[in-house]
Give the backbone structure.
Amino acid sequence: MNFAPLDYLILVAYFLSLGTIGWIASRREKNTEDYFLGGRRIPWWAVTLSILATEVSAVTFIGAPGDSYRGNYAYLQFAFGSLLGRVLIAFLFLPAFYKGKVTSIYEFLGQRFGNHSRLTAASFFFITRLLASGVRLLIVSLALSVVTGFSLVPIIVVVALIALGYTLIGGIKAVIWTDVLQFSIFMGGALLAIFFLLREIPGGWNGLRTYLEPGKFKVFDFSFSLTSSTIFWVALVNGCFQTFAALGTDQDLTQRMLTCKKLGGGQRALILTGFIDFPVVFIYLLLGSCLFCFYQSMGNPLPPHIAADLDTVFPHFIVTGLPAGVRGLLIASIFAAAMSSLDSAINALSSSAVMDIYKPFIRPGRSQKHYLRASRIFVVIFCILLVASALLLNRIEGGKLWLGFKVTGFTYGAMLGVFLLGVLTRRSNDRMNLWAMISSSLLLLSFTMIEKVFLDGATLLAWPWYVVVGTAWTFLWGWFFSHHPHSTYVTL
């Protein structure tokens, strides 16, 4: 590990900043609303940066450069549909969540349908978030393994313990304010890396365009195929549904939008992230192009183990191609990508466990002090489970950028379908919603089994369609087997 004293100084300053923010955030924790929603006093601009930090951090920081290194800019197509998905969440889901004054968004399903819908969606969230955040933790830990030379397992444990420390004491306020810091660090790190790469490429930006063939900058693919995941209309539809589900039905991301004092603040924060997403993704794809030019087009050979796993090419450049100080900042950027993914996940998992299961069904009627203590215990439990998830997912081969999306495909459609039933219809059948969600996931799992067993790995249905199919299946099943509710709840 080729570290200079300045690199260590930068890393120490970064970790001290995280600890300080966590300590300051913990001073006003009196109840679960403080711990999980920051007392609904978080400014909308901080929520914007926190959503971006969690959403694009680990997978984008490492996976996007690797994806454009091996391919082109097709990933950017998803941002168009993603913006549409955010608009739908802002005007369909957020008004319902604010009206219900929920802490966990699955409380809304309990208000609208009953406990079968609420507990099934919460269970799906636990599975989805443990897998998806396990991928994120794995990605940045692999990167840190490359830059530090340490083995993977202790790195995963150390990263998890650091995130656990400030999240445990500061709750969602610590998550959001550390995310603001961390977003600034890993975006600044990416821009610095591009600057140094362009200095190494003869002719800078013009040299980059000369060295790379035009196809490396290709964004749009307007062909027609049901088995491709990178053509525009597939990316548009999937980007919309994936974002609609991820930011609208996943407590990890939606929780941030509920910390604003008023509905308008949450809506403003969410929609703004959709516009900022374009330059953020482009920067990381451009970084991958610069790395490809530096190593492939200019003839700088990659070590065999790096060439075999292109998701590690950016960390390799950080160690071998950057000067002292800048190297320390970029390594801090990798830690920032890890922290901003993990902290929010363990806080959100804890909030759902306490508000959807522990408080209403296991220990009802206890004091706020009791529930606050239970919340911190669940934070520790879910941190341990996420470490286990990352270690298990390390056995799966292939690009980590797309793996982060694939693991959510089996459950997001079911979750989105039942939430859409809640806001778009007056119908209600709590028990049938449970079977609609379970059958949706089983249907999608059967597609994967057919591909592996009968088609020898050939694609029956591209994974971006999984969320779309799951949503339609759940919504139609729930609508067909439902009846008008006896409650006076009015949909928005």
In short: Confidence is low (pLDDT under 50) at residues 486-492. The chain has one domain: 5-392. Residues 30 and 369 are 7 Å apart (CA to CA).
